[in-house]
Write a structure and sequence with these properties.
Largest sheet: 8 strands, mixed
CATH architecture of the largest domain: Alpha-Beta Complex
Distance between the termini: 64 Å
GO molecular function, one term: propionyl-CoA carboxylase activity
InterPro entries: AccD/PCCB, AcCoA_carboxyl_beta, ClpP/crotonase-like_dom_sf, COA_CT_C, COA_CT_N
Helix content: 40-55%
GO cellular component, one term: acetyl-CoA carboxylase complex
Pfam families: Carboxyl_trans
Strand content: 15-25%
Structural class: alpha/beta
CATH class of the largest domain: Alpha Beta
Shape: elongated
Protein name: Acyl-CoA carboxylase subunit beta
Number of helices: 21
């Protein structure tokens, strides 16, 4: 063969790999309202930046007719490219080939791209659209998943890992997304479950659809498995790009800084009206976040799950921050099991990737109830406490209004290591609300009084004046300053700038043993 013939043969093989098994397979994928693997990669990465690994890889399995079906790529497109000029590794299941099912060669391609991502110190994005293990390959396929799980775990806290669910993900395959930092899902096409509807029906008798068992909204609202839920693939992948723009490439780097047209010294009269002085009046903490951050722009994590706590990524003065905030508009902003676990995972992620933490506190306590106690609020609520105490990134807390009991301590109080603790003049820091405290401390006096209700009101006022005035904590050094709410943004920008070079180490150890 001449050199020209050789090159022509190579181009034909590459074109065959790019085109997929047949045009009808692409049409079937589009008929389901789904993009192909390569179309998804094109949306995710900067134009013409993708470099593919092993496009000519084929499986070597035999039996069950596999020896006659050996398509190029073996059902997964893998490689690297750029997002806003920074390197990102990616692999995408190709549902047109074996339904995206994972076999030995398929798994080895994924292993390679995962190893390269860690070696290069760059984020890894998986575009999941597969039918699980390739049954015809038996234990070899299962071992392939084991290799993925081991690599997910070793990469945890080293590089950002993002899973995008764009089709089915069943059985053991669902554990790889669960091991990653963030999971995106798309309504109508994303499904995740350990056992499918048929197995559920045969074992428990419960009737449920695929979407009802493990659809995007199920995992975005009820299970907490999905961090972000979107209506279409294009919007979803655009948001993955935005998330990557907020994250460092690895745990040795700081998040990328930007220049903002929003003045860092901008004051806000609006903040005075957003937070009611009355502690029992609800408001939306997200309006406060919008007023504080650059250009009012933030990315909320787990927006529909455990909505009594808001977790978000944003920028303040061009610097990326992780925001944890009680949400008085939902359950009065109390902490419960789900909110504690949500906050703990977010705090751990920010700490792993050098993202400073800003905690906005307006919390009446932990949610009381038999169900919470029996379901383990003690050990599961302790996860948030552990995460904060273990974090070494810059930590700033701001008490907007009330901060009662153990929940005040857990929400990154000065006593557990916040670098700077601030408060608005509307703050109330106490063991509990004045009404409940007076009922405990002055119980006998109130009961013996000629007018118990009048005495109760007097004792409430006495307790409030003695222990709940806004400057009680400041007098004892538990709050560094009580600030004018209108100047909150300038103060926070200045504090975060000061803490930018913070250097803190934990005691030498293999790893901690957080509460489970």
């Amino acid at each position: 063969m001449s050199a020209a013939d050789t090159l022509n043969e190579l181009e034909k093989l590459k074109e065959q790999a790019r085109g997929g098994p047949d045009p009808q397979a692409t049409e079937r994928q589009h008929a389901k309202g789904k993009l192909t693997a390569r179309e998804r990669i094109e949306l995710l990465l900067d134009k013409d930046s993708f470099t593919e690994l092993e496009p000519l890889r084929r499986h070597r399995a035999t039996g069950f007719g596999l020896e006659d079906r050996r398509p190029y790529t073996d059902g997964v497109v893998a490689g690297w490219g750029e997002v806003e000029g920074r390197t990102v590794f990616v692999y995408a299941h190709d549902f047109r080939i074996f339904g995206g099912a994972l076999g030995e060669a398929h798994a080895q391609k994924i292993h390679k791209v995962m190893d390269l991502a860690v070696a290069a110190g760059a984020p890894l994005v998986s575009l999941n659209d597969g039918a699980g293990a390739r049954i015809q390959e038996g234990v070899s396929a299962l071992a392939g998943y084991g290799g993925i799980f081991a690599r997910n775990t070793r990469a945890s806290g080293v590089i950002p890992q993002i899973s995008v669910m764009l089709g089915p993900c069943a059985g053991g395959a669902a554990y790889s997304p669960a091991l990653t930092d963030f999971v995106f899902a798309v309504r109508g096409i994303s499904q995740m479950f350990i056992t499918g509807p048929d197995v559920v029906r045969s074992v428990t008798g419960e009737q449920v659809s695929h979407d009802g068992l493990g659809g995007a909204d199920v995992h975005g609202r009820h299970s907490g498995v999905a961090h972000f839920v979107h209506d279409d693939e294009e919007t979803c992948l655009a948001e993955v790009r935005y998330l990557l723009s907020l994250l460092p490439s690895n745990n040795r780097e700081l998040p990328p800084r930007t220049q903002s047209d929003d003045p860092p010294d901008r004051e806000s009269e609006t903040l005075l009206a957003l937070v009611p002085h009355e502690g029992n009046r609800a408001y939306d903490i997200r309006t406060v976040i919008e007023e504080l951050v650059d250009d009012g722009d933030y990315m909320e994590v787990h927006a529909a799950w455990a909505a009594n706590l808001v977790c978000a990524l944003a920028r303040l003065g061009g610097q990326v921050v992780g925001i944890v905030a009680n949400q008085p508009a939902v359950m009065a902003g109390v902490l419960d099991i789900d909110a504690s676990e949500k906050g703990a995972r977010f705090v751990q992620f920010c700490d792993a990737f050098n993202i400073p933490l800003l905690t906005l506190v307006d919390v009446p306590g932990f949610l009381p109830g038999v169900g919470q106690e029996h379901d383990g609020i003690i050990r599961r609520g302790a996860k948030l406490l552990y995460a904060y105490c273990n974090a070494t990134v810059p930590r700033v807390s701001l008490i907007l209004r009330k901060a009662y009991g153990g929940a005040y301590i857990v929400m990154d109080s000065r006593s557990i290591g916040a670098d700077v603790a601030l408060a608005w003049p509307t703050n109330e820091i106490a063991v509990m609300g004045a009404e409940a405290a007076a009922g405990v401390v002055f119980r006998r006096e109130i009961a013996a009084a000629p007018d118990p209700e009048h005495t109760r009101r007097q004792k409430i006022a006495q307790y409030r004046e003695a222990l709940m005035h806004p400057y009680h904590a400041a007098e004892r050094g538990l709050v560094d300053d009580v600030i004018d709410p209108r100047r909150t943004r300038p103060v926070l920008v200045r504090v975060l700038s000061m803490l930018h070079t913070k250097d803190a180490d934990l005691p030498r150890r293999k790893h901690g043993n957080p509460p489970q």
